[in-house]
Amino acid sequence: MSQSPKVVVVTGASQGIGFETAKAFRALGYNVVATSRNIKQTDDSNLVAVAGDIADPATARRVIETAVSRFGRVDTLINNAGIFVAKPFTQYTAEDYAAITGINLGGFFHIAQLAIAEMEKHESGHVLSVTTTLVDHAIDGVPSVLASLTKGGLAAATRSLAIEYAKRGIRANAVSPGIIKSPMHAPESHGALGALHPMGRMGEMSDIVNAILYLDSAPFVTGEILHVDGGQIAGH
């Protein structure tokens, strides 16, 4: 009897890294539950779209309930949803703070709790978050305090989860990108953004997707923050 396909939940999946990640898992035969605010359902019966704000706990409940009712389990959670607002620290507003912490932290907390509760039933699973190398290597001219506050929290939480659940068969890892070519960066900015990396160029979305796929397929790797950043973490 063949083993049932694994089930992966991908947040922030309507465009960019999340979209490419969901597509890559489907190509590998995974059942996928994809979520974002404006995501549309496709004709693929093995890729289910759940629209909603990931900062809202009700969205997290709908996503995990959909995964379990449709496919029976949750094997992997890709916590990709996030927002980045580059402002001088003193210019952040209360609305900025609420939006960034709501999505980057709340969006992780609510859905990861529910996903891990399902993983515990099967004593296996993987929680993978997408952070940023700015957490470890701030760049002059790229104000990023709220990114560091929130995504840095995810990096720390990843290590904590890895230890807490190591003996229960559940892994936790993160991918820490540099600046990646995606819809959020206008093509005319690519040259300047690429120059911020020691390798002299921006990363491709495929670089991040391949890192995610590697970590998901590496059963002896947990608590790892994998930097995919053109050398930024090493210095300048």
From TrEMBL:
Q: Any stretches that span the bilayer, and where are they?
A: none
Tell whether Oxidoreductase is among the UniProt keywords: yes
Gene3D superfamilies, alphabetized: NAD(P)-binding Rossmann-like Domain
Give EC number(s), comma-separated.
1.1.1.385
Source organism, top-level taxon: Bacteria
- Entry's CDD domains? SDR_c
**Which GO molecular function annotation, any one, does this entry have?**
oxidoreductase activity
Pfam families associated with the record: adh_short_C2
Keywords per UniProt: Oxidoreductase
UniProt record similarity statement: Belongs to the short-chain dehydrogenases/reductases (SDR) family.
Q: What is the protein name for this chain?
A: Dihydroanticapsin 7-dehydrogenase
The organism encoding this protein is: Paraburkholderia hiiakae
